[in-house]
Amino acid sequence: MRLLSKSKLMAFRQCPLRLWLEVRQPELREDSADTQASFTAGYQVGEVARQLYDPQGCGELVELDRNNFGAAFAHTRRLLEQRRPIFEAGFQGAGALAFADVLLPDGHGAGAGWRMVEVKSSTRMRDYHREDVALQAFVARASGLALRTVAVAHVDSGWTYPGGGDYRGLLKQEDLSEEALSRRGEVAEWIAQAQATVQQPDPPPTRPGAHCVAPYACGFQRHCQSQQPQARHPVHWLPWRGARLNQRLAEDGITDMADVPDDWLSERQLRVKSATLTGRTYFDAQATARELAQHGLPAYFLDFETIQFAVPRWRGTRPYQQLPFQFSVHRLTRGAGIGHCEFLDLSGDNPSLPLAQALVDACGRQGVVYAYNAGFERSCIHALAKRHPPLSAALMALAGRLVDLLPVARAHYYHPSQQGSWSIKAVLPALCPDLRYDALDGVQDGGGAQQAYLEAIAPDTRAARRAALRRQLLAYCRLDTWAMVRLWAAFTGAHLEGH
């Protein structure tokens, strides 16, 4: 029998096929950028947790060699004898292995034992955390550890960083001792079922479904989808599918949009179905022109790029707060034509104040400010106004001028190539095929922009590399606002002078 790690057992709890692939065909796994970012956040929160649970610095981290788990188990046993804080303590027992984020001495004398804390980078307790902790506790006790209490510590999103490296208050702890320690029978059954699964010569017959993305995205999604019969017009291209529609589709085994009865669909869903099956674009040009004509010129087109840190870096900011570090603004005026302003700070310092000042200057005092999915820009501007009272009035006035282009597109435009999405990257190729995000060098999406920013502000990044990242970030954000200009022109029928 092979030892199954806690992560593999949690994969089994999500989907038996995922576990089988993790063990039998791990090369097929493709983790998304979001998954990689969550791993990074976990590492960062874990580092802070070690400081918070061991302020005297007397604990020790067990280094993990994935090719030699035995060394970690032996190291853990030596540290247990010394009764001091242990981080990543390794245990094996009952066919499983696990590594505890935080293990602290608990009690003295005959009642001496250990307290375990599992550290999560999420901002609240989730149901799968309870299973995670139950597994962790079961394996530790199966190895012989005198485990007394178990808790989960997660990030408190309402906490504000005071600066100076003081992260007291970042984590909120919830005790799960009674629940975790009482689930021994359940956990033993999970392990037995998982062991039986990995010993099967053939993969479990599991179809793709909601479990592919919950409680976390599975890296085998693309592989599993490729093994299914491929519908010509997949039903997942239908937008706004509620639970009732999804249930009816599943019950009737419908996978192709062509087989979905029209009376099951809303007006907009029918529009998507019709455009998809006929290959004809839906575009109510008169409606878009009429809707946008009320705003006139001058017009500004705004896009932010933001970063969020699980562990705040700048005083006065919160965990996972969306913090703008860059913007692009295109400006249209009668007679003067098209102008452009941009801001990007790669110093690594908090860019909030200079960005807010530059934003007010770039957007003037009057005229509509267009954004795509404007709720995001509005929330960023509101946060800037709250943070910088002297600029609050100007910023709130700017927020009041925002107009969202996304609802206009949803209501009046759909091209078959959008595949059920109205993101600007889905709409743009249809309306403006000469503009391509995939032609950009390096940064081609928001996730890429965040990674480029983090690399650019890292102290060890060379000047030449930082300059290259600057060019990539500026080009990407500029395309976002130029794309909106072009969409506006297509929706209004306007001619862009000189373009």
Notes on the protein architecture:
The protein has helices at 6-14, 16-24, 33-53, 69-82, 127-142, 177-181, 184-199, 221-226, 243-251, 267-278, 285-293, 352-362, 374-387, 392-400, 406-412, 424-431, 446-457, 463-492, and strands at residues 4-5, 60-61, 86-93, 96-106, 113-120, 147-155, 171-175, 282-283, 299-307, 323-333, 337-344, 368-371, 402-404, 413-414. Strands 1, 2, 3, 4, 5, 6 and 7 form a 7-stranded mixed β-sheet that branches. Strands 11-10-9-12-13 form a 5-stranded mixed β-sheet, with helices on both faces. A two-stranded antiparallel ribbon has the order 8-14. It is of the alpha/beta class and 499 residues long. α1 crosses α2 (16-24), α11 (285-293) packs across α18 (463-492) and α17 packs antiparallel against α18 (463-492). The protein folds into 3 domains: 4-199, Lambda Exonuclease, Chain A (Alpha-Beta Complex); 227-278, no CATH class; 287-492, 2-Layer Sandwich (Nucleotidyltransferase, domain 5). α5 (127-142) links the parallel β5 (113-120) and β6. The protein is globular, with a radius of gyration of 27 Å. The model has no long low-confidence stretch (mean pLDDT 95).
CATH fold label of the largest domain: Nucleotidyltransferase, domain 5
CATH superfamily of the largest domain: Ribonuclease H-like superfamily/Ribonuclease H
- Oligomer state equals single chain
| Gross morphology | globular
Number of structural units classed as domains: 3
**How many DSSP E strands?**
14
Biggest sheet statistics? 7 strands, mixed
Structural class: alpha/beta
Helical coverage, percent range: 40-55%
CATH second-level architecture of the largest domain: 2-Layer Sandwich
> What share of residues are in beta strands?
15-25%
Q: Unreliable runs, pLDDT <50, ≥5 residues?
A: none
Distance between the termini: 68 Å
Overall pLDDT score:
95
* Rg, alpha carbons: 27 Å
The first-level CATH class name of the largest domain: Alpha Beta
Total helix count? Answer: 18
Protein name: DUF2779 domain-containing protein
Domain DUF2779: 300-423
